[in-house]
């Protein structure tokens, strides 16, 4: 850790404190300011490094989650297509595509229902007008 250098000014030595070995008030303040600036600079650098690390980890996790979702969608479509080809024995591709679409729609509706069920319902805030009108005779 490099400490900030303090330079003695002509006023410091002319004040007569140089002979007693005590630093003058101005050189002490200069040393205090230089040290404080060093501490603040290091804290800012540390905060920037932590922010960059957090951003990097967040972007990496988001990319992995997105890739996982693409793979899951591909697996879902492969399983759904396999199920449709095994269950529907008619050679008509229109019927097979319709069943495939219905199977995917049912899966999507199930996921939406699951997502909506997990979200807490927030009650509507009461307005002042409604409470004052109910109190009047």
Structure description:
This protein is mostly helical. The chain has one domain. It has four helices and no strands. The chain has helices spanning 10-14, 25-87, 93-118, 128-135. α2 (25-87) runs antiparallel to α3. The chain is elongated, with a radius of gyration of 36 Å.
Topology:
Blueprint: H1 10-14, H2 25-87, H3 93-118, H4 128-135
Helix pairs in contact: 2-3
Number of domains: 1
Structural class per helix/strand content?
A: mainly alpha
The residue fraction in helices comes out at over 70%
Average pLDDT metric:
79
Question: Beta-sheet strand percentage?
Answer: under 5%
User: Count of helices?
Assistant: 4
The shape, in one word, is elongated
Tell me the quaternary state. Answer: single chain
Determine Rg (CA atoms, Å). Answer: 36 Å
Kindly state the number of beta strands. Answer: 0
Low-pLDDT runs = 1-17
Q: Distance between the terminal alpha carbons, to the nearest Å?
A: 78 Å
Characterize the main sheet. none
Helix and strand pattern: HHHH
Summarize it.
This protein has four helices and no strands. With 137 residues, it is mainly alpha-helical. It is elongated.
Keywords:
0% strand; 4 helices; disordered N terminus; 74% helix; mainly alpha; 137 residues
